Amino acid sequence: MMEEELELSSSQSSIKEILVAAVALEEMMEEFYMRLGDVSSKHGTLFQRFSLEERRHAELLLELVGKVGKAKLTLNRSSMEHVENIMDSSKRVVEELSKALGSLRYGEEVRLETLLLVMLHAEESAVEFYQALYRAIKPECRELLEGILEEEFRHLENARRVYRALHGVYAQTAGSASNAN
Known about the structure:
elongated; 0% strand; mainly alpha; 181 residues; single chain
């Protein structure tokens, strides 16, 4: 009995750590989109809306953190390991995001294509994380994640659309340059 209680306590601690890390990532994405909106006037309104949605995601995740403390949110061991593996695999994306955000903060020149690629990777990672978390938590706690997951899917689709549109511009520019020779 004592071992089960320790396991539950350890599990709750891990869930809380995962959610707190997700809150921090949402806050980074909020700032990233705000700054990306300043850099890309063509899509500024879209990125400003994304920034506000990322803020709301962080607030909803904080609600889930509160449920962990009240033992309303639990994960089984295999689900927990899956979510942790996804968090580990997203470290590269977090590094990309941190680097891009640092460059934006300090006014360093960063190609829009690079920023959009970071956005695309971050949204893909977010969808994967929230899908795993959604499957791992009890059904009564899933409602908070449903809205986040829907918005993350929309962010991913918009990120793909914007990135494809930008690549079309680069492809046309490259094609025009080669035709001029």
